[in-house]
Amino acid sequence: MKRVPVIAANWKMYKSKDEALEFIFKVNQAVPSNEVVESIVFPPAVFLNLLVKREGENLRIGAQNMHYADEGAFTGENSPMHVKTAGAEYVLVGHSERRIYYNEVSETVNLKLISAFRNDLIPILCVGETLEIKEEKRTQEFVNHQVEKALINVDKEYIPKLIVAYEPRWAIGTGKNATAKEASGVITHIREKIASLYSKELSEEVRIIYGGSVKPSNIEEILKEKEIDGALIGGAALDPENFIFFTQVAEKIKK
Ligand SMILES: O=C(CO)COP(=O)(O)O
């Protein structure tokens, strides 16, 4: 089954307004068409509107987080409607930094996933183990459990839209990436888990990507793995030239 590769830049809490605009200006014309590579940028929420107005045809914009409720007394939060009307088409759900610093737990991850689908946003569900769990050789058990919990009550009609990012926590921002083979192994098992929850056919439509210290020097090796459908990149994708390079490698390898 052919799956369109995904190259996603998670800006986290970086970039000034001018830097954000400069990035979009440089990248918009340079990335491959959306049918060939889905190129997505996740800026801080306050920039969503600004960046979408400048959007060309190819670069897509997503939110780094959202609340699961449609509205409510939740000071400081953005609803799915807010991020959607600001122009987001995608949303990161369950990023490890949200899980570590903001009390994101499997129940809220699950509610956000359901809410994203209901609001016609494409979620990138982030999963990944700590170093401790890896050393205990419990990676697969842990990651499969995260996937299973996240997908509770998610209707099968939405599964083809799902994107999962396998981001081992020990690899995020550390310069230490999982080897391509390691990542591919975990991703294969995630797909099997989704097959066991839904069906093999549906599981083959899900894009499963890798994140954690992806950089220009390792992107080729990672994307050469058939099971890895793209990358979610932090630090290295803040540079527009790098981002363009990542999309070009995806276009070349996944064609
Ligand atoms: O958290 C990440 C993407 O969501 C990965 O960050 P780094 O690429 O900086 O390791």
Q: Secondary-structure element order, as H and E?
A: EHEHEHEHHEHHEHHEHEH
Order of strands in the sheet with most strands: 1-2-3-4-5-6-7-8
Mean pLDDT: 96
Poorly predicted segments: none
Unique bound compounds: 1,3-dihydroxyacetonephosphate
Number of strands: 8
Could you give a short account of the major beta sheet?
A: 8 strands, parallel, barrel
- Give the domain tally: 1
Number of helices: 11
CATH homology superfamily name: Aldolase class I
Instruction: Provide the CATH top-level class.
Output: Alpha Beta
Q: What is the CATH architecture term?
A: Alpha-Beta Barrel
* Overall 3D form: globular
Descriptive report:
- With 255 residues, the chain is an alpha/beta fold.
- The chain has one domain: TIM Barrel (Alpha-Beta Barrel).
- It has eleven helices and eight strands.
- An eight-stranded parallel β-barrel has the order 1-2-3-4-5-6-7-8, surrounded by five helices.
- α1 (17-28) packs parallel to α11 (240-253) and α7 packs across α8 (180-197).
- The longest helix is centred in the last third of the chain and has 18 residues, at 180-197.
- It is globular.
- The two termini are 12 Å apart.
- The model has no long low-confidence stretch (mean pLDDT 96).
- 1,3-dihydroxyacetonephosphate is lined by residues 10, 95, 167, 172-173, 211-214, 232-236.
